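Ticket #4471: structure output looks truncated?

Reporter: J.K.
Steps to reproduce: submitted the chain below (224 residues) through the standard prediction queue, then opened the result file.
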Amino acid sequence: MKLHYHPASTTSRIVELFARDQGISLEYQLVDLFTGAHQHPDFAKMNPNRLVPVLEDGDFWLTESSAIVKYIAEKTGSPAYPKDLQARARVNEMMDWFNANFYKDYGYSLIYPQLFPHHKRGNDATQTGTIEWGKQKTQNWLQILDEGLIGPHKTYLCGDTITLADYQGAEILALGDLIRCQYAAYPNISRWMHTMRSLPSWGPVNAAAEGFAASLNEQTFVAI
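Returned output as attached by the reporter:
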């Protein structure tokens, strides 16, 4: 299996962190987003969205990081995607929560409009309103995550065993490092993220993102 990816891509890192932590061998094919390689017609044949990651498995191509990690886990028999119907449903539920609820406000209202010109709103008032909305909504989701979904007794999102939801959720939450978000007000999130950041694969997988964050040190952001 070959993963077409870029290390600065949050969704690419979800797949890479899962695979490396679980000892799953993938071939990694860099798609240089900064030179526009994802816009090339050959790449568009694999993914008409022109986004990474894309998994190539023979003549089968798969997009969307959530679908990719589930496919890899199923194919390799990874315990990170449990076979028990209800346990698997909890993992799917948690992954959908991050994608459908948290990420849209955290990433696309709070973080990306402050970092990338193509996400910036058309005027200052709309830009400011979007960021403030994103911050308020994110704080609400963080409280739910901290108190209702993780709580004080679980090591991981779905219990005492790491699952696909943890790899996905931790990389999405780590996106906030770029604007220097802090989670001291959310002790259960902080504890869980410390556990995830302690994985041996975390440092190598996130090195490019951490370098990008360091390059932004002089900039001022609205953060949590």
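Triage note (M.O.): checked the attachment and the full token line is present. The first strand starts at residue 2 and ends at 5.
Status: closed, working as intended.
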